[in-house]
Design brief:
The structure is a single chain. This protein folds into two domains: 84 residues, Arc Repressor Mutant, subunit A, CATH 1.10.10; 243 residues, Penicillin V Acylase, Chain A, CATH 3.60.60. Helix content is 34%, strand content 24%. It contains twelve helices and 14 strands. The strands form two sheets. Strands 1-4-5-6-7-8-9-10 form an eight-stranded mixed beta sheet, with helices on one face. Strand 5 and strand 6 form a beta hairpin.
């Protein structure tokens, strides 16, 4: 694994989607091909051969050509700037959908929100394969639509973020038996939400209009409310906050998509994490972002809200909390720790303003 150095930060701006993509590609030209190669290796480990990857990419291209051709132009710009093929950049942005074609037990992210004196705050872990730890970065993106601050992976438009309108987005993968790479990729949808939507209501409306064929949950916050939006081939389902808080792990909470969930991937891990998180919230909602992060800190013998990799395992089975993120929609800020909630007090936080 690449030795950890100062985490990359991108600040890119342009008046057109294609130019925005080209500048992203140029900024990542030294390592983007390496990032794709590492993902291609993961696809094969999970049983997704090159032919199925290429079929998924072609389907995504067809969807974006119809639904958001300007975003496809942005992905093409990344390929041009980095000297890659468009198919490789699309595969990176559709990595969640391509991975869904395979099968392997996973340990994933945990998210929690709180209402504090009428404002909403969010926090989450980002748990992923340790072999990909070198290939994520923070960003400020100022192009068509709203400017936003975010955490994402190399070549991928968006993941977690907050925009200048005061809308924040947290991201958790879900699994449904009908998942496939034929609709808009979830990481692309995250970008569209952050650049086009100024409120939770606007974001929910946009998501309901999107051609979704895979599963994830966006936990959305603005100055008035927080919700977790479950997306799947079975539809879009909004999970409201209860007593000023939303808690999210990696299983469906609505009964409709839950009936066809890929439970073998995230369970019982996801339910155990959610139960622990809810038991902690029940004792009192924290009054600041640091308190929210503390809810996500766990150690040996507890459900892994903080994830530690088993180094004895192989690629595809070694999960770790690579980053911890907080959002404050009112202040338009995103805090990113290059590490785990257990390192929050001593770690180096990067705070970005949209």
């Amino acid at each position: 694994m690449t030795e950890r150095t100062e985490r990359l930060h991108l600040e890119i701006s342009a008046s057109s989607h294609r130019e925005l993509g080209r500048r992203r590609g140029e900024a990542l030209s030294g390592t983007l091909s390496e990032a794709y190669a590492k993902y291609a290796e993961l696809f094969r480990v999970l049983g997704v051969d090159r032919e199925r990857e290429e079929e998924g990419v072609a389907a995504v291209v067809a969807t974006l050509s119809d639904w958001r051709p300007e975003v496809l132009a942005e992905l093409d710009g990344i390929a041009e700037g980095a000297g890659l093929q468009l198919a490789q950049v699309v595969a990176l942005n559709a990595r969640t959908e391509i991975i869904a074609l395979g099968a392997l037990a996973s340990s994933e992210c945990s998210t929690v929100t709180a209402e504090v004196d009428g404002r909403r705050l969010g926090a989450q872990t980002w748990d992923w394969h340790i072999e990909l730890a070198a290939y994520w970065h923070t960003q400020i993106v100022d192009g068509p639509g709203y400017r936003f601050a975010g955490l994402t992976e190399q070549g991928i438009l968006s993941k977690i973020g907050v925009n200048e309108a005061g809308l924040a987005l947290h991201f958790n993968i879900l699994g449904h038996r009908a998942d496939g790479p034929t609709g808009v990729p979830m990481h692309v949808l995250s970008n569209i939400v952050l650049t086009e939507c100024g409120s939770v209501d606007e974001a929910v409306a946009l998501i309901r209009s999107a051609p979704v064929s895979s599963s994830s949950a966006f936990t959305l916050l603005d100055s008035t409310r927080a919700v977790s939006v479950e997306m799947s081939p079975a539809g879009v389902f909004v999970i409201p906050e209860v007593d000023g808080s939303v808690q999210r792990t990696n299983h469906f909470q609505d009964e409709v998509p839950l009936a066809a969930q890929k439970s073998e991937i995230y369970e019982p891990d996801s339910s155990e994490r959610l139960a622990l998180l809810r038991s902690r919230v029940a004792t009192g909602v924290p009054g600041d972002s640091a308190g929210l992060v503390a809810l996500l800190a766990t150690g040996a013998g507890e459900a892994p809200l903080t994830c530690f990799a088993d180094r004895s395992k192989s690629y595809g089975e070694r999960w770790e909390t690579l980053a911890t993120a907080t959002t404050d929609p009112q202040e338009r800020t995103l805090g990113v720790l290059d590490g785990k909630p257990t390192e929050a007090a001593s770690g180096n936080w990067r705070v970005l303003t949209a």
